[in-house]
Design goal:
Elements: E1 8-12, H1 19-26, E2 43-46, H2 59-69, H3 74-88, H4 103-116, E3 121-124, H5 133-148, E4 152-156, H6 160-166, E5 169-174, E6 177-183, H7 184-193, H8 199-202, E7 203-205, E8 220-226, E9 235-237, E10 242-249, E11 259-266, E12 271-276, E13 290-297, E14 305-316, E15 319-333, E16 357-360, E17 366-370
Parallel strand pairs: 1-4, 1-5, 2-3, 3-4, 9-15
Antiparallel strand pairs: 5-6, 7-8, 8-10, 10-13, 11-12, 11-14, 14-15, 16-17
Helix pairs in contact: 2-3, 3-4, 4-5
């Protein structure tokens, strides 16, 4: 593929499709096994947390180190220094080694450095998901500004709303190959119409799962996600039903299981909600020793983004015997849920509200009414 100067290009695809590897090749971090990448221009990159910074150096020292790596002179970095610090908003920690930064602080500084040191080509990976909504908005604004200045931006994201907002041109990858290269609207449409995530992502063996807290009994054996037509997938359109199945074996317990449940959180750790068998209209008094609990989630309509599911089982409502946290991810992709052309983003919260609105003059006479979605 070829990318022209001043283009903002989205790179999309399922987990493992090669998106991050492509950016590493373009950043000269990884050598391609075959083929070549020809790059004309100074590259600034924001890849996974940890790339490009020396952990023992302070934030201040890393700013100058990165500038030097880009071939900039000290006076050029001095000219942008205050802007970088203000954008990163890390306060008094500027002179603290970055190994002591939280992931959010690290990303704020890394993006500020990558975007403000005037690279001719800016490469940005999904790492923006670490920041809060306010910082993400600043980043998106800065990427638009960089593009407006005639520089090139390559953006990897699972958030189709962001890709559609920023990018006119997109690449779709699958299995390390370029599947489609063209206008963003067409590429995203093709991607969403063929959501066939690797079954490995949607079927999770949990017998020896690392996110099982200490002291839990490994009763939960497997967790799966399926679409309404039975297809194993972790990718869903907004409003599409999700079938979560939790397979368990409690034959090792002296007493029967009495309930099971799940919790859903956004990637920022915000609890969206949860459900358990006690909330059901006809909750069972006990579960069979071996079996599967199936949850069909229809509402609410989630905003685009990644969500983590945690599952648990217990012998009664207050005694959890087994729990696996963040066992499986759910990726929600944007659609026009209101039928108005307005595409929701993570900045709109975590759920799409079902609402009716009308506008009237102060005497109460109606100007317009928007029907409920």
């Amino acid at each position: 593929f070829e990318i022209e100067r001043g283009e903002v290009v989205g790179i999309i695809g399922h987990n493992g499709s090669g998106k991050s590897t492509l950016l590493k090749i373009l950043s000269r971090i990884t050598e391609p096994t075959r083929g070549r990448a020809e790059i004309n221009g100074r590259v600034g990159s924001l890849l996974e947390v940890g790339t490009g910074f020396h952990p023992e150096l302070t934030g201040r020292e890393n700013i100058y180190l990165n500038g030097a790596m880009l071939g900039m002179r000290k006076h050029e970095i001095d000219r942008r220094f205050d802007e970088i610090v203000a954008f990163a908003d890390i306060g008094k920690l500027l002179d603290t080694p970055v190994k002591r930064y939280s992931s959010g602080m690290y990303v704020r500084l890394a993006f500020a450095v990558a975007a403000h040191l005037e690279p001719e080509i800016l490469l940005v990976d999904e790492v923006l998901a670490v920041g809060d909504a306010g910082f993400q908005k600043k980043c998106l604004g800065k990427m638009s500004e960089v593009a407006g200045a005639g520089r090139t931006v390559l953006l990897v994201s699972h958030n189709m709303a962001v890709i559609q907002e920023l990018c006119r041109h997109s690449l779709l990858l699958s299995g390390g190959r370029l599947v489609q290269d063209g206008p963003t609207e067409q590429v995203v449409s093709h991607y969403l119409s063929q959501l066939t995530a690797d079954t490995m992502d949607a079927v999770m063996d949990t017998v020896e799962h690392p996110r099982r807290p200490f002291g839990m009994v490994p009763i939960i054996q497997k967790v799966t996600l399926q679409s309404s037509d039975g297809r194993y997938t972790t990718d869903f359109l907004q409003g599409e039903p999700v079938l979560l199945s939790v397979y368990y074996d409690a034959t090792c317990l002296d007493q029967p299981l009495a309930g099971a449940g799940f919790a859903l959180r956004s990637v920022r750790g915000v609890r969206v909600g949860g459900f358990n068998t006690y909330m059901g209209r006809q909750p069972p008094h006990r579960l069979p020793q071996r079996g599967v609990v199936r949850y069909l989630l229809r509402e609410p309509v989630l905003t685009p983004g990644r969500y983590a599911l945690s599952v648990s089982v217990g012998t009664h409502q207050s005694h959890v015997v087994d729990r696996v946290e963040g066992v499986i991810n759910l990726d929600v992709h944007t659609v026009d849920v209101y039928g108005t052309g307005y595409l929701l983003t993570p900045e709109d919260g975590v759920v799409a509200l079902d609402c009716e609105v009308d506008v009237a003059f102060d005497d109460g006479s109606l100007i317009a009414r928007a029907p409920r979605s």
